[in-house]
Amino acid sequence: MSDKLNIEQLVSSKLGEAEIEPAQGSWPAIQRKLRWRQFMRFDPVKLNIFYLGGLLVISAGLILLLNTDQSDTGSMKDTGFVRDANPAESIRNKNITPNQEELVPEDATNQQHEVASGKIRAASQDREADRDVSQSNREPANDVKGSALEEFETIPGDTSSTGHARELPVQNTLVPYFTCSVQYGCAPLIVQFFNQSLNETSFHWSFGTEGTMQDQDPVYKFIEPGKHVVTLAAKNAEGQTATYHQIIEVYPSPTAEFEIEEGIKSPDGLGNFDLINYSEGASSYAWNLVGKSKGSHSTWSSNEFQPSIQLSDIEQGTRYLSLVATNEDGCTDSTIQVIPDYPGSFTPTLRFPTAFSPNPSGPGGGQYSPHEKRIDLFYPVFSTEPREYTLRIFTRTGEQIFETQNIYRGWDGYYLQERSAGGVYVWMAEGTWENGKEFKTQGDITLIWSDQR
Amino acid sequence: MNGEKDILSGCIRGKQSAQRKLFEKYSRLLLGVCNRYASCIEEAEDIMQEGFVKIFLNIKNFKGEGSLVAWMRRIMINTAITHYHKMLKHRYHEDLENVSELKFEETNWEEADFSREELFNVIHQMPQGYRQVFNLYAVEGYKHREIAEILKIDENTSKSQYSRARRWLQERLVNLKESEKAKR
Known about the structure:
heterodimer; A: alpha+beta; six-stranded mixed beta sheet; 23% helix; elongated; B: mainly alpha; 70% helix
């Protein structure tokens, strides 16, 4: 049958162009939705959410601007002022940091006096005028102090204060501020702080470590190197709190330490001292001889790490050696030591034993090497080798049985290859020291044969 | 004054009177279109309202290529499909596999066999996935490739959905017819 339809044809023909009457509220609903959508999407020619948002932002900005303007002319202005021109300082007139005082232009300083002493008249016109002056002065002051490591913040305890800014008397504004004797230096750094806050009823200091201080003008010793934040927290009668902080930078310091040691003699027999450097954290060193009396300077000095000093460089009267150690930050430490007597350098000595026991097995010739310790020979112990030397030994009856000009030869207890008899002998030594001084000394020696009783 | 051009230019300028005229002129037809994609007349109304909002907001982009009615129909269909995708997130998926594959014989119908309301009723009861594919293919005349793109499904899915939709519809219509006969 030709008018039979399959399912697609049936649906298409019956429903494809079917019309249904929309509900009554359809059109108003569409209009509502349309207005809302138009409002929500950006259209440059129509009032929409973006314009409304923009308007809101602008009005909020205006309100804020007006508010800050008000507070600027009122009491809160002082806080802004302190940051740049520091009225507290000039009011208290302590003159602790004269350089800062100088940096502030003359007008500004006068201005601060006015602000602080509350001379600003209530008339807002006057305030406006003052503000202009202060603002024009702000910039140069700001430039000068731009490098200062300080920041200022105010936390108004009472938020309504901005609204009533005009009514608040100027002199009641809390202005925490302090100055310090130094802002940076080598460890350990001792800094004196001066509290110059305005209108504070209570305050406390913190130095970046545990605990606080209540002193008016505390002195604090910074031991650890690094940046330390020093905070002064102040509170006024109205319960407002505010803090002010500065950074104190402490550089590490070196430690200077050394020892003086007897050096090895040079081939020409001159003595010297080796200087052993135990300094820490330093990069350069300065060694100097220091005389007993002030101002007597030695010609010798050294910048080496571990120099040697010749005995001949040590002039008569110089008794001290100083070392100054310096690090990259320019921090120094110094130490001073007494130069010890060089063995034999000033009072050469010869010392003879009072008894000895020769080798019973026969004569040995008496030669010994320097620093050798022999008990079978009779010879002196000396601090320094004499230039000339003669040792003679006599029996109790006056007969000479031994003589030598060699300091490194002692008596072996034999005379003409025969054992000398046990008992007491007399010795005589004479000669000249290296420094030209002559010496002559004598004594007795007891000879003991170890195999005889 | 009431010509389509005037209405169109009025709508482009955002004139409320022109918008109203456009609505009055085409809302019945477009609600019919929406009704095929909805599971009830209220849903169809919603889709139509949303579609009209889109039409008014975008009518300035209508370039005049093709007829305005066709353009509006397409917007309605798109709105319906967007609506369907949105609804998918909130509705349980109907078990589309739960359709008997047995005893299927092609039946042909006469136009007078069913009233429009009866047909709409059956369409409304159709599982959503079937309804979209069936409408797009059988009534709108889209190709399976296009349907796949529109519905963001696989082309083969579109094909199998369609044949199942067809079978589903066939069964319902047969049942409907039989119950009608029984009533008489």
